[in-house]
Amino acid sequence: MAGSVVAVIPEALGPYMAPITALISMPFTVLISNDAFYFGMLPVLAATGAEYGVTPMEMARASLVGQQIHLLSPLVASTYLLVGMSGIELGDHQKFIFRWAVGACFVFLATCLLTGIFPLHAG
């Protein structure tokens, strides 16, 4: 899966692998488990980023951007505990929180880029 994702990224965007990884982390940490993303996809993304001068540490930091959305995934047991104790349906919770989680991801992404947590462009 990671190879397919890397294959669709044009070579000209290679130096931008950190913010690309941040954006990729948003849907993928919901659609697949954290283990699959961090142990399966991130090493391939990091190796690709290294070819363009993005360090593995910068790639790891960028990969954390999608964690706010990950908590909406049905793969997270604590989310079931939350909705169960609150008396809300999981779907209602996801619909209400999704836009806030996406917004938080973009605030996190902008803050990371502005403070240099990971670079917009390698080099």
Summary, kept brief:
The chain has seven helices and no strands. With 123 residues, it is mostly helical. α2 (17-31) packs across α4 (56-63), α2 runs antiparallel to α7 (90-115) and α3 (34-51) runs antiparallel to α4 (56-63).
Attribute tags:
123 residues; mainly alpha
Could you characterize the architecture of this molecule?
It is a single chain. This protein has one domain (about 1-115). It is built from seven helices and no strands. By secondary structure, the protein is mainly alpha-helical. The longest helix is centred in the C-terminal third of the chain and has 26 residues, at about 90-115. The two termini are about 25 Å apart. The chain is about 70% helix and about 0% strand.
Q: Give, in order, the helices and strands.
A: HHHHHHH
Structural class: mainly alpha
Q: How many structurally independent domains?
A: 1
| Helix run count | 7
Q: From the alpha-carbon coordinates, what is the Rg to the nearest angstrom? A: 15 Å
Shape: elongated
Number of strands: 0
What fraction of residues sit in β-strands?
Answer: under 5%
Unreliable stretches covering 5 or more consecutive residues: none
Q: Can you give the mean pLDDT?
A: 92
Helix content: over 70%
For the largest beta-sheet, the strand count, sense and barrel status come to: none
Distance between the termini: 27 Å
